[in-house]
Design goal:
It is a peripheral membrane protein. It is a single chain. The chain has about 350 residues and is of the alpha/beta class. The chain folds into 2 domains: about 170 residues, Rossmann fold (3-Layer(aba) Sandwich); about 160 residues, Rossmann fold, CATH 3.40.50.2000. It has a 6-stranded parallel β-sheet, with helices on both faces. It has a 6-stranded parallel β-sheet with strand order 9-8-7-10-11-12, sandwiched between helices. The longest helix is centred in the first third of the chain and has 24 residues. The structure holds uridine-diphosphate-N-acetylglucosamine. The site of uridine-diphosphate-N-acetylglucosamine (UD1) has 26 residues, from α1, α10 and α11.
């Protein structure tokens, strides 16, 4: 089977694309990727990936643009749609999986225009605009947050399960800002760094590329030792060595922490579309698996109070919560739909 996987923009979408291509190749299939020249698509797949071919088209987001900017963005999508139609034909694509984000638009619409089955993975608890628009035309709409989803769970890298463990006490804390880093999480980490040092708690911190140098200097002036990263490919190992996380509630990170059994204080990105990060984390709070707090002036004292909390029961409960092999179930489902 020859698949097209499309979508991206941020790491959250691209990690799903990666999980899907790995599962497809493992089952003897082939996949091409159609993404955008903007966002993080090239960083993820331009040089190393399991895709047979990767294409980065000249597209940009439409939702936040107005007037001429919106018109230009739509025109670029139209040109990319024509290009995507050609690519689907050239590679004899039999099905397309969209992982959402603005880069998914051209190839998803091209797929429908060629009467090729479209599959969609929605990562968040609140549906993205493009996903909602295309949902009625899709063969499948998979979401970990939808009880009617034909496949339950969230596709994440096997390594997060492999290194999963029950947390018993707090020796190491990890601060995670999502694929772009988060200034609010960086500031929070710096504000508690001395306190953590006093308690002998080791700090791991993924600060994002944009804020990395500032954060590095601040730790130096505080004389606090830290294992500091801008962006790392070793996040599975780093999360596994931590006992507590302080994290944005991007969907992939949230489910990776869950699979690994690492309890977390989630601080949702306040400007996410439809406030989806807040809703992503609600099952964590409702099932007493961790904590979620809005960004506000009390966040530092909230974190300090969590340092004394018992972690073991939450960690054990998290480990029972995730489903394994979701990406390979999604690929098998495509073959079943095509054979129907
Ligand atoms: C600001 C914003 O709107 N963010 C959205 C974006 O987040 P973002 O891209 O930050 O999202 P996620 O947390 O879902 O995923 C980040 C992914 O990057 C990986 N990673 C991250 C840092 C690093 O140093 N190394 C690394 O490998 C993580 O392991 C994870 O797999 O997409 C998600 C999925 O649609 C949404 O839920 C988020 O709301």
């Amino acid at each position: 089977m020859k698949l097209c996987i499309t979508g991206g923009g941020t790491g959250g979408h691209l990690m799903i694309a990666q999980a899907l291509v790995e599962a497809a190749v493992k089952d003897g299939h082939e996949a091409i990727f159609i993404g955008s020249m903007r966002g993080q698509d090239r960083k993820y797949f331009e040089h190393h990936s399991s895709f047979s071919h990767v294409y980065f088209l000249d597209t940009a987001g439409v939702v936040n643009k107005k007037g001429l900017g919106k018109f230009k963005a739509l025109f670029k999508i139209f040109l990319a749609f024509l290009k995507s139609r050609k690519l689907l034909k050239k590679h004899n694509i039999v099905a397309t999986y969209s992982v959402g984000g603005f880069s998914a638009a051209p190839a998803s619409i091209a797929t429908l225009s060629r009467s090729i089955p479209l599959f969609i993975h929605e990562q968040n608890a609140v549906e993205g605009r493009l996903n909602s628009l295309l949902k009625p035309f899709a063969k499948r709409f998979i979401s970990a947050y939808d009880n009617n989803s034909p496949i339950a769970g969230y596709p994440i890298k096997e390594d997060f399960f492999k290194h999963a463990r029950v947390r018993e006490s707090l020796k190491t804390i990890i601060f995670l800002g999502g694929s772009n880093g988060a200034k609010a999480i960086n500031d929070l980490a710096l504000s508690v760094a001395k306190h953590l040092k006093k308690l002998n708690i080791k700090i791991i911190h993924q600060a994002g590329e944009a804020d990395f140098e500032r954060v590095k200097k601040e730790y130096e002036s505080l004389h606090v030792e830290v294992e500091l990263y801008a962006f790392t490919k070793e996040l599975d190992k780093l999360i596994s060595s931590a006992d507590l996380a302080v994290s944005r509630a991007g969907a992939s990170t949230l489910w990776e922490l869950t699979a690994n059994g690492c309890p977390a204080l989630f601080i949702p990105y306040p400007y996410a579309a439809g406030d989806h990060q807040y809703y992503n984390a609600q099952f964590i709070v409702e099932n007493n698996l961790g904590w979620c707090e809005r960004e506000n002036e009390n966040i530092k004292s909230k974190l300090i109070s969590i340092l004394d909390e018992e972690l073991e029961s939450k960690s054990k409960a998290l480990l029972e919560y995730s489903s394994k092999d979701v990406a390979s179930k999604m690929i098998k489902d495509v073959t079943e739909v095509l054979n129907d």
